[in-house]
Amino acid sequence: MQKFLLFLLFSFSFASIMAQNEISGRIISAENGEPLPYATINYGEEGQMMTNIDGSFEITYEEDQIQLKISYVGFYNKNVDISGEMEYVVVKLQPSITSLDAVMISSEENPANAIIKKAIAAKEKNDPERALEAFQHKTYTKFLIDNQSDAVNLDTDTTNIEIETIINTARAYLSEKISKTDFQSKKGRTETVLGLKTAGFKEPVYEMLSLEANPYSLYKKDYQLFQTDYAGPLADKALRNYTYKIIDTTTEDRPAYVIYFAPKREKKVAGLEGILYLDTASYAIQRAKAQLLGAIKLEVNHYYHYYEEADIWFPERQTTEIEPGTGTKDISVFGGGISVGTLQRSDNIINRVLGSGKVSPDAILSSTSSNYDVVFDSPEDLKQHPASIEVPNGVNEQPETFWKANRQEPYTYRDENAAQYVDSIIKADNIERRIEVKQALGNGNYPLGFWNFDIGNFYRSNGHEGWRLGVGGRTNDRFSEHFNLHGYGAYGLRDKEFKYNIGTQIYLNKSSGTNLNIDYTDDILEFGEFQYRKRVDLFSLFRPRFGNIASYFNHRTLSTGLEHRFNAYTTSELQLSNSRISMNGSFDYTYLHNGQLYSEYDVTEITFSILWRPFSRFLHTPEENVMLERGFPRFTAQISQAVEGIAGGDFSFTRAGFMVEHEISQLDQSRTEFIFEANYAFGDLPLTHVFHASPNNVNEPRILNRFSVAGRTAFETMYFNEFFSDKQAMFHIRHQLRPFYITRGFKPALVLFSRYAIGDFKEKDKHPYAEFNTLKHGYSEAGVELNNLLFGFGLSAAYRFGAYHLPEFRENFSFKFTFQLPL
What we know:
The protein is mainly β and 823 residues long.
């Protein structure tokens, strides 16, 4: 009986599907054949839709025939009768003279531009984050990567129907999230996750929380979608980047202008194409749609709700969908180009989560978020410096009653089946292991069992050691969740010396990043090197400047330190160390102190280092603090005090450093970087503990003998050991022009750079056998790079000028490779 009822159910469903008709087509101008984007189509009793940006549409209807009523501002209306036999239709509209608003039409400028100017001027009272002192709301988000094919083979035995349904509706990823957003005008916006479900994963995939799948605001300068910035259609300079046209007006209680916008400078600035519904009274956004059509089809819809008590249109619901397209236009998504089936960047989040750069040609990415329980001027005070996204403990363990009470979208039978299917796929394909590996690789590690190998330790090269071969890493949480053991061993083929490190890090409080570090190191260091202990750089497999250094000293250092994160943006370390310094013949050096020459000595130092990144975005979980987006400027400071007489310390001196890094990125992919660094030291300073200015020119007379790989912030024309300082300041500026688009895979980038350093050295006579100069007259160089010519390689040229200009041209000129291969 049960099978008979199932058979009847599917028979009725099949009959219903067969009774439906589909018509697709395109609306174009009869005058020039151009497509008419967002033309309004009314059909049936209440059916209404708009054409896509290419004038195309698809309608499903059940009647034998329907009439399409097509309207578009500036064109005569047209009715078209459609019957079930028709599959495709092209409708041509005749241009006409329209009269929207007497004031607007009488204006000499484009009436749509006049409306946009008023909307931009009104952002202060319409943008919730500008107009309101505070607000609070909850958000339900459902994110999935689906399969377009949802057909069920009804010829199969009914016992296999459920299996066929699961297979044909297979999803690669499915998650739900409930969160609370708190905004205060003086402290910004923070999101606290209340519940998180990720099908198939034991632990939440926190990285997915960083995706801007549903951008919060259309009022901002940049509209960020999946880690890609587009020009905002209501940015202050929007009229430079977009063209606008009035295509309709609505006749609701609060009428709106329907404004079509399209990119004006597509080759220079990434832009979207879409429509804005702007309130005719306040010029606030009531609704918006943005699209990209090309190798993929991307569509974003924004819906706003009017709250009379606050006199504001507030975001209510957002939907985002990506599916394969039919065009050849390059689309920028996930921070890079995308074509059918392939994400072009290897370091995007979707790639890391799915474990592959391939996406099924039938895949649909869909995200929906709904805001509810909105409260304005909330009295709840945000804690000082919260992370952008807070993930408390236990959010992935919420009961089903919590989800039923908070879901704003239906969780269907298909979703339940998808969750089961994803669970089986993740286990079968070992997806969690792939995520672990790719996340570790991004930090320069490769996990194998309980040990994470440090990729950067396998090999290096420099002028003193020659090839340096080694192995190193640290234990992971499989070994212990309370501490790690770490270390490395390395051997130089030229100096024939073994170096090593061994240590432990004890996790006192993972949530606040409070750790106790204990290390012993027997290795080499560069003369004049000042290491900021809390400076964080992106891992790169190849660090070019180190391959050119030839002058080192030996050190045996025992250190203990306490790390602590004051808040999401500020991290610090206090360290006590004792080092035994000795020379190794690469640079003969002795230090004169109180009438005694030292070539071996002990240094005991207390060091405090701090890193402040107030403009970056972070995700804070009970286990870690994850940077979602690098923001600038960022600040690093460090001070250390050497103490004589404690633990055998021979000298007393103070060293301090301060660095500011800033970067300005433009929508046209050009970028300007600034770095300012100041160092100061006083006391009994051996040359090992003063400062150099990051020289990177090999001490050879001929240009080709100096041919090597250029650094990123090094002085390419400054010779090694040429200058040392006990106080100095450096300024670097790099400007990368918009890459030259020659082919999809060949996009060289031209970089212009300039560097300046000034400094001094107070007591040169304490270093009687070392010959070096000071920077008191100011050192200048400028140059050019042409990067990404072939397999990450490029070329660099720099010239030295100013006070330290040398007599011959070849002495002032450097010509080198560049190599960019971040992992």
